Amino acid sequence: MLLSLSPARRGPMVTALGTAQTIGWASSYYIPAVLAVPMADSFGLSPVWVFGAFSMALVVSAMVGPWAGARIDRYGGRGVLMLSNLVFAAGLGGLAVAPDPVMMFAGWALIGLGMGMGLYEAAFATLAGIYGREARGPITGITLIAGFASTIGWPLSGVMLATWGWREACLGWALIHLAIALPLNALLPAGAAPAPRPAAPEPEAPPPPRGAMLLLAFVFAATWFNSTAMAAHLPGLLQAAGASTAMAIAAGALIGPAQVAARVLEFGLLRRFHPLVSARLAAAAHPVAAVGLVAFGGPAAYAFALLHGAGNGILTIAKGTLPLALFGAAGYGQRLGWLGAPARVMQAAAPLVFGAALTGWGLSAIWLTAGIGLAATAALLWLRRN
Questions:
Q1: DSSP letter for each residue of 125-180
Q2: What pTM was computed for the model?
Q3: CATH assignment, 210-382
Q4: Name one GO molecular function term (predicted).
Q5: 7-186 has which CATH code?
């Protein structure tokens, strides 16, 4: 049921939800980069096992996403998002006290449950329930804030790791969920009770065309594969192109600012256009950047990072705005859950698949992600506004 919210409350609510999203991303998606090695060492395992547990968490999130979206469609997002903070805290607390690898995997499974209930898809569905087709601006707003999740999360995890240890770092993130994110999500408008069933059944809106749904699911899966592959292997890829280690690291640091700058552009200039326009431009950015990297080698590392980061920043918004613009607000949350499920699975496979390609093919591995990006661009060109 669509809720109404005065424009005066829009800014504080978007800020609260965006901050809670920052905590959710920083304490789940971004902690393996800092904590995986010490976590694995404490159990006498290779870090591959910890990354495997993280991949399992992504699959769990894909499975729970449609259920969470349907609940948000029916009851509003506040309860689901608050529950996700409790689940995140339980999973992170479980990691903090895990005595063996089995319990470590169980902790990551709980974190995956929290990811399916509490990250972007759930937040986008919550905003669609409040603003309907006018949710594009608020969706962009929370991605602008949460775009700094790695900027905040990696250093904070590193400080807690250096000061106390990886277990205490997990416990610290659990407490942050309970002390900050949970109260922020509690500020969201309460979902209205389901409308009473009418005496005579009302005609239902036709379901979205299956072909359009499949095309959009493919686009999301393809772009999330590329995004995760680059997040895991960008320095190694740039070095394979001839960049020095220092240059590769410096170029990688441009990804975050490029994402945020592109989201500001989406919030301003590109907001005048249909989301399909910005999504097509964004999907084409990675293949164009790949051609430049192959053609010019190491000196093109900075341009590659800027183009890829900008495209990725806009595509993150498109995951929320495109289904809303194409199919409407009715049933949006559950639809977004189904559309995002293949993307989560591809996201889980991306580091392993692209890592193997980079090891075997060197710089030529970029043609894998470039081809996937071109296919996503073609699918978006095939889609029509109505």
A1: HHHHHHHGGGGHHHHHHHHHHHTTHHHHHHHHHHHHHHHT-HHHHHHHHHHHIIII
A2: 0.81
A3: 1.20.1250.20
A4: transmembrane transporter activity
A5: 1.20.1250.20
